[in-house]
Specification:
Elements (H helix, E strand, L loop, with lengths): L13 E2 L2 E3 L6 E3 L23 E3 L6 E3 L18 H14 L5 H4 L29 H23 L15 E2 L8 E2 L17 H33 L5 H27 L8 H30 L7 H4 L4 E2 L2 E2 H13 L11
Antiparallel strand pairs: 1-2, 2-3, 4-5, 6-7, 8-9
Helix pairs in contact: 4-5, 4-6, 5-6, 6-8
Length: 349
């Protein structure tokens, strides 16, 4: 057991009339159930006090009777009845039942923790953030960082969209002023596959369109001939049903001829290579349309007549021009020029 009168800063385990708080180390008067400094529960320890000793009001240490200076802190000791200080505090606490001010009455100095962290161990009270990161935390952090970087690299080098970094032209581009009519979907010249065929030139596309229209003109001419033969057979002597049917066929042929003329006009000849051929085909189409317009007008008059024999002169009026046959004239113009105006392939150079 330490000698009586030991300094309170040495945290003596036992002094006369006082016990040490096991939680904060403060001197606690005997008989208190809670520490007046930290309010921790105290184990009751009965200690007798030497009547010849008194308390130091500065540090709380016991000072032998007759000493004028505290042997622990060196502060002067009052000559009054200092021994009554602790006893009066205890008695006051017992009388009022309030020990909330015991820390002031017993002159217990507050515990001061060092700013320097103590040695790290399992029982250390140093806050977790005051310590260096543990090895487990460092490993988890490094693994997470590596995974994030690897994922980013994988996303950049292997995108989910295989064509995300394809820099080949994909937007429709108008090439009508460069000899390529219309719009092309993709620049095939950028593809490295030698098995792919090269794109057709604008003049080649124009030639194919005009050739197709030229052949269709001949097909429509055959239909006009058949309709005119039908007119000669039933327009004046046929039944109402036959005449209405002939008129409907004539109307359908007229629409086909008009649509074909429109298709010929839509062919892009801005390069100038096949401009003359387009003009010739339009002329042939107009010959056929004029012939069919006259025939269709005669069909309408025939279908409206109740007695086509009586109305013959009125019905055939659209087919005559000064005594000459309108349909025969346009038929001759078409046939005389059809072979000569056939589109021929030309070089674009």
């Amino acid at each position: 057991m330490p000698p009586r009168g030991a300094c309170a800063f040495d945290r003596c385990d036992l002094e006369v009339g006082v016990v040490i708080c096991p939680n904060c180390g403060s001197n606690v008067p005997d008989g208190l159930s809670k520490c007046p400094a930290c309010h921790a529960d105290m184990d009751r320890v009965v200690v007798e006090r030497d009547a010849d000793e008194t308390w130091c009001k500065s540090c709380g240490s016991l000072v032998p009777r007759g000493e004028l200076v505290c042997p622990c802190c060196g502060m002067p000791v009052d000559s009054g009845d200092d021994r009554d200080f602790a006893e009066q505090a205890i008695e006051a606490g017992d009388a009022t039942g309030d020990l909330s001010s015991d820390s002031e009455q017993t002159n217990v100095m507050p515990r001061i923790e060092s700013a320097i962290p103590s040695e790290d161990d399992d029982t250390s009270t140093v806050a977790e953030h005051d310590r260096l990161p543990r090895a487990k935390v460092m490993i988890i952090t490094m693994a997470t960082a590596v995974a994030a970087v690897s994922g980013l690299v994988l996303l950049i080098t292997h995108p989910w969209n295989p064509g995300a970094f394809d820099d080949r032209a994909k937007t429709d581009a108008s090439t009508s002023m460069a000899g390529y009519p219309g719009a092309i979907k993709e620049l095939k010249g950028q593809d490295k596959d030698p098995s792919q065929k090269s794109a057709k030139s604008g003049d080649d596309v124009t030639y194919e369109a005009l050739t197709k229209a030229y052949k269709k003109l001949k097909t429509l001419e055959s239909k006009v001939d058949e309709n005119e033969d039908l007119f000669n057979d039933v327009a004046y002597s046929g039944s109402q049903e036959q005449r209405n049917s002939g008129k409907s066929k004539a109307e359908a042929i007229s629409l086909e001829i008009s649509n074909l003329i429109g298709d010929i006009k839509d062919v892009d000849v801005t390069s100038g290579t096949y401009a003359e051929d387009e003009k010739n085909l339009l002329t042939l189409g107009n010959y056929m349309r004029n012939r069919m317009d006259a025939l269709y007008e005669a069909w309408k008059r025939s279908a409206m007549s109740d007695n086509p024999q009586t109305d013959k002169s009125l019905i055939e009026e659209p087919l005559k021009d000064g005594g000459a046959s309108v349909t025969a004239s346009y038929k001759k113009l078409f046939e005389d020029n059809y072979d000569d105006w056939k589109p021929t392939k030309k070089s674009s150079e």
